[in-house]
Write a structure and sequence with these properties.
alpha+beta; two-stranded antiparallel sheet; single chain
Amino acid sequence: MWDVELARRICWEYHKPDDAYCLGMVRACLADLSASGLVVALCERWQEEGARLLFNYRVSDFGLERMRQTGLA
């Protein structure tokens, strides 16, 4: 799932507006999770509309292990 689609779904799930601020905050959190190795970017693409770089993420093996250790999986 592309990060912007995931961000919209998260905002909907938590009853937050899907405005630029909330979407940007979720995308920033995804970038932090990627930097820490909990998720990995599978591919990227440039979106002309909005002039932004999109990422397709998945949870890493390390991320799954941490989820198990904390009771999230």
